[in-house]
Amino acid sequence: MILKYLIEKEFKQMARDPFILFIVIALPVLVMLVFPWATTMEIKNVNVAVVDNDRSDLSRLLTEKIASTEYFDITGVFMRSDEALEQVEFGDADIILEVPYGFEQDLLSEGGSSLLIEANAVNGTKASLGTSYLDVIVLDFTEEVNLERGAVTLTAPGGIAVDSYYWFNPTMDYKIPMIPALIMLVVALITGFLPAMNIVGEKEAGTIEQINVTPVPKITFIVGKLIPYWVIGVIVLSVGMVVAWLLYGLRPEGSVLLLYGLSLLFIFGLSGLGLIISNYSGTMQQAMFMIFFIIIVFILMSGIFTPVSSMPEWARAISMFDPFTYFAQIMSMIYLKGSTFTDILPYVYPLLAFFVVIIGWAVLSYRKRG
Amino acid sequence: MSRGENTRKRIRELLGYTDDGFLREDEVIRTEGLTKCFGDFTAVDHISFSVNKGEIFGFLGANGAGKTTAMKMLCGLSKPTDGRAVVAGYDLHFNSDVKRLKKVIGYMSQKFSLYEDLSVWENIRLFGGIYGMKDRDIAEKTDELLLRLGLTEQRDRMVRDLPLGWKQKLAFSVAIFHEPRIVFLDEPTGGVDPATRRGFWEMIYDAAERGITVFVTTHYMDEAEYCNRVSIMVDGRIEALDSPAALKQRYGASGMDEVFRMLAGRAKREE
What we know:
The complex is a heterodimer of chains A (370) and B (271).
Chain A: H1 2-15, H2 18-38, E1 46-52, H3 57-68, E2 72-78, H4 81-89, E3 95-99, H5 103-110, E4 116-119, H6 124-149, H7 175-205, H8 207-212, H9 218-248, H10 256-280, H11 284-301, H12 313-319, H13 323-337, H14 341-365
Parallel strand pairs in A: 1-2, 1-3
Antiparallel strand pairs in A: 3-4
Chain B: H1 3-14, E1 27-38, E2 41-52, E3 56-61, H2 67-74, E4 82-87, E5 90-91, H3 95-101, E6 105-108, H4 120-130, H5 135-149, H6 164-175, E7 182-186, H7 194-209, E8 213-218, H8 221-225, E9 229-234, E10 237-242, H9 244-250, H10 256-264
Parallel strand pairs in B: 3-8, 3-9, 6-7, 7-8
Antiparallel strand pairs in B: 1-2, 1-4, 4-5, 9-10
Helix pairs in contact in B: 4-5
């Protein structure tokens, strides 16, 4: 049982490294504490500059209605549109709402009028979401005016009211859907980076040569390196899950056991990837940049932050080879939908393939004679 | 003979390698035309020599002469480009042979390569375990070894905190802990004072007395005098090979130092 001695050695070395202890506990806590707030897609405090050419009661009422929501702040009411544009240029305003002359008149006599909404599209999300929020408020306002006038609603298209219900996240809290993905990210970061530093570290210290001259089989050596990271991954996962529960009250709807089982597959695969990089690298620096690059690509192509369905064909093809795509899906399905093993099976196969390829590669790329 | 063993023999025969008594009765290493190239550069250039069982064999040469490269081939760390070498009965040409070879050799590299963040006993236990020793045997032998080295009180100390001389003694002890047939030492005494070096050589003699063949490279010519036989490598080739006394006589020199300077002076290769 050579493996026993190798694993024992890895654990002793880890236990003596205060950095590893810190990172395993502190990183997941920190990520869960901060990132859900930072990655939220919700838009609040959009700054609106109003150009009021009408100067009427109704235009003032509209401005007040906009200001009263939690989404918008009015940065000022201007006489000329170039003054408002200046606000956008200085970054004080995100959106310009221009009320035309005769707004009140048109609204009262014809039940409708036209407004101009201009958005600073440098921040695309803010621009598009802010504009559509503003649309809704303006529409709402028109309807109120029309009701008071006792007229038939003309503004809402066809007079159909749309009610929305958001399944699996009824309050449409944008923090919630991010949490399973964030837990995955922190697990991936730690179980990817640490092994990438490991073998190359032994190369730099020269200890790898002492190992290479022993009869230890390649597979035993690699498995001896993987198992400790597997344990670390499980700790990180658990810390992340507990914090998600304590802080956001989010618990997996589905089976926790299933979640852990599939995480093991994911962790093993990622640590294997780290070891492959370590095998090919000559220095820690090389290994560091390589794993950094790969993980960034994995994150961006996985559809965690942007939907895969809106990517161009070629990008979607890349995301098909991204293990994060599948594991993020599995995580949120188990966490939010309570999916069972049969539900997630289509995502398990690719993950399994990733695991097999990576482990095989990790063993083969370890250069040792005999 | 097992089936795997038979298959191996067949393959060897097909490749033209037969158990032809290449390695003589009292030899433990034999090479013929052993060569290692890195691209255009021939680091080791067709060397042929043999080492006898139980002898202390000094492998001398200036920096860059190819000593370490040759030694790494003999330990199964790197694959020869050309030529044949049989070590402890295993042919370096075959990966399956190299795997077996590793069980019966020990190696101490030029660069100190025990784990600095493990304690003295943990390092011993790790390598004992890797060579397939049992927990109880390891524990027993560890106590014995530490007592002999006078390191009993240091057993829980991290290896990084040991003085260099002790580190080297420990590395050597770990290299022969599993009772190998041959131990390869690559400049084992670099950077320590003469008294510590003498202590180290006493350990080498002990090992040789127990029947372990010692293959050692060194820079120090006083150490060359301690060897039964020495070879001197110049630019990847072996220029001379004999006992220190015979070499001194042949070159009319008073010490190995002089012999070495006469031979190494012919080198054309830059360091």
